[in-house]
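User: Can you predict the 3D structure for this chain?
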Amino acid sequence: MHIRSPVKPMLAATIDHIPPPRSCPGGCRYEPKFDGFRAVALVAEDGAVHLSSRRRTRFNEAFPEIVAAVAEQLAPGTVVDGEIVRWAADGSLDFGALQRRHVAGRRRAELARTEPCHYVVFDVLESDGVDLRPRPLRERRTVLEALLGAAPPHARVVLTPQTSDAAEAELWFEVFAARGIEGLVVKDADGRYLEGRRGWRKVKRRTTAEAIIGGVTGTRQAPETLILGRYDTGGRLRVVARTTPLPPAARTSLADLLRHAGPEHPWPAELPAGFAGGVYGAHPPIRYLRTEPEIVVEMSADAAVEHGRWRHAVRFLRVRRDLEPSDVRLFGDPT
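Assistant: Here is the predicted structure, written as C-alpha cells:
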C-alpha cells in the first residue's frame, strides 16, 4: 500500500453562496455537508481496519460497528474519507448521539447496538494498490461508485450523493436542512486530493436570530467574544451561543453599553466548552466576564442546533436597541 498510516484529510474553506458550475476549473461537483465526525478509514493489506479522526486519533473503540462494516464492505488495500453520522428515528441527524460515544466508556458497545451509526463516504484515496490522491476527483468518484454504488439499503457504509447540476444542489440546500444537513461542499471535478489543504469549499445554511448578552471574553471595555443567552419558560437565563471574535467597531460600541453583573447573575464563573460551542470535555472551561443580561443582539448562525444551543460559533451582526430581553424568543427555539 502507498498509505500505511492515518492521513490529514482534505479540508474546505467557507464561502457565503453556492457557486455556479463554471467557477470550478474542471466544473463543480456538489455534495451534502453532513453534520458528524470526519473520519478516514484505512483497510490494511491484512484486512485490519484503522479508523481515525480529522486529527488522526483512533476511532476504533468509539465506533466498533463502523469498523466491522468497513471490514465487511471494503477490500484490503483501500483508504476512504467520509463522515460518521447518526440518524435519529425521524430521519434527522443526531449529533448528540455521536458526542455520547466519546464519553460512554464501558457503554460504547451497548450504544453501538442501541444507537448504531453510519459512515457516509465521499472520497477514496487508495484502492487495489493504486494511489488515487493525484488523480482528479471525477476519476476517484468513478472508483468510489464501483466500491460502494451497489451497497444494499441496510449497509452501514454508504456513498454520499453528488451532482454537477447547480439547480439540484440548490434544491438539496433547501430541502435537506430540515434533516440536519448543514449545507453543501463544492469540489473541482479535476481537483486532486490535497492532504490537510483547504482545496474544497463549503457553504452553510445560515439564519438570523436574537439573543441576550450574558457575558464576554476579554474585558468589558474591550470584549473579544460574546456569550449569549435566552430565558427558559421558568425565567432562568440559559447559555445558547458564543460569537466569533468581534470586529473592532463592535468592540468599541459594546464597551459603552455593557455593565458588570451583580451577584444574582445565574451563570457560573467558568463555562464548560460544550456550553458555548464545541464538544463537552474536549477543551478547557471558558473563562469569561459576566455582564448584566440587558442588551439584545442579532446574530447569524448555521443550522447546527442541539438542545437549544448553537454548537458552532455565531456571528455578531448588530445591537438591537429596539428590543428588550423579554422580546427574545425562549430557550429551545432556534428561530
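The first helix runs from residue 64 to 73. The chain has a mean pLDDT of 91.
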